[in-house]
Target: 2-hydroxy-3-oxopropionate reductase
Amino acid sequence: MSTLPKIAWIGLGIMGSPMSENLLKAGYQVTGYTLEQEKLDRLARAGGTAAASLADAVRDADVVITMVPASPQVEAIAYGPDGILENAKEGALLIDMSSITPRTSVDLAKAAAAKGIRVLDAPVSGGEAGAVEAVLSIMVGGEQADFDSALPIFQALGKTIVLCGPHGSGQTVKAANQLIVAVNIQACAEAVVFLEKSGVDLKAALDVLNGGLAGSTVLTRKKDNFLQRDFAPGFRIDLHHKDMGIVTDAARAVGAALPVGAVVAQLVASLRAQGDGGLDHSALLRAVERLSGQQV
Amino acid sequence: MSTLPKIAWIGLGIMGSPMSENLLKAGYQVTGYTLEQEKLDRLARAGGTAAASLADAVRDADVVITMVPASPQVEAIAYGPDGILENAKEGALLIDMSSITPRTSVDLAKAAAAKGIRVLDAPVSGGEAGAVEAVLSIMVGGEQADFDSALPIFQALGKTIVLCGPHGSGQTVKAANQLIVAVNIQACAEAVVFLEKSGVDLKAALDVLNGGLAGSTVLTRKKDNFLQRDFAPGFRIDLHHKDMGIVTDAARAVGAALPVGAVVAQLVASLRAQGDGGLDHSALLRAVERLSGQQV
Model:
């Protein structure tokens, strides 16, 4: 007889499916809900239970985990008569692992507290591969006691697990992550175009650059994308566009200036407007190439 | 009796002094010249020879190495009746390790060729510590044969030594290095202000960020500068201002757009204008703090 908490998992997409399966492997009972039958079937085959409705999924759960695309989806599943707050039991812990605006996380925590439901925001980085291999970085906002009680669950999903501060802090750190990643890609993109137009051996140059103070994880992981103009995702411009919206909104809310982040947000938006939303975010190189008169 | 080439070293500043001493340690004869007697005395104490003039220093040299602050100084010592090109012997190799505009390096190589003098541009990164410990990164532009003949000298000065392309390519890669470093610092600075204003535990946040795709050598080496507002140089804003001028000029010359590099160049210039030119370049954090209404 298991003493592990019963888990409801809402949202079984590219990230949610492998993550929920990692909980099954760790011995948890997982009841899942999403709108696609095929994803529910996959969960059932992996040993989970497919619920017929959101309310059914969460009713008996000790822990409800949500992993959906953006703030509107989190609000849609949290609120209303059929939502999580109305149907989860008092004392349940709601862990939202979606990447959304910090403000939405703070509001959700307040609304949930009124129902006796505790909340953690816990967005991740590491992508599909990190989800499958259970090596995600998990950035958490909320109360220490709730973090402590959720830690065994997080440890079945990721490797670097950090409580960053009060409600919304996980989302804030995730937003900062996306800001730095986009700007660092842009730095490389500008350097690549400058180096190539100057007639330099690009591969030799990127190797020596990555060995010094200009080195970065972006340069290490995206070097081949730059060299080969291979922009198969990876992490899509469409998603980074969403995230640049989150970080610029969140920064505006707290009065933090992002003079460079704002420019990069525009370049990401411009790529999307030109039909490149499905490409990997290293395709910021294309934006710089176009600005530099190259036909791409 | 030594068969090593005789070396003239011009410019014995923070970088030039320890670098020339590393050549003495490696067994080279080094004759030095600079404008400060105390630096000449230091070279003599280390086993080198102090020349009374630039012409005297270079007259018998097989290899002339220059390490001076910027393009005007390189032009001042290279050209004119008392300069290197007029006084070095035919067949000598001139290695300019200063960080200057690629255009100046290309022009110098042409003018030198007319005198039978070969040239390499070979700027470095790694700072004073890298110079002292002989672990500099050396980015070289010029002919393969000249690179090959200079390699033993470079190996006495640095660790990562790369021929990046034709004349000027070393300067181009160094310029790209300074571009990426400044932009990556700016990315961190914007993230830090955003995180702090959002009430996040900054140290925890920077640790988790550095472990993922947002990680960089800048974040690793400058994290404590950000956390403690410690802006003791390090690499001074004044010097990075010079370098942002080089990269924006060089990019303009080849038609490469630097939409983000140009903004960061402005922020560096603004710090300098506000009297912060003597601070470490991590002080870009101050620029973002001021833009965000903080009194610093």
About this structure: The longest helix of chain A spans residues 169-197.
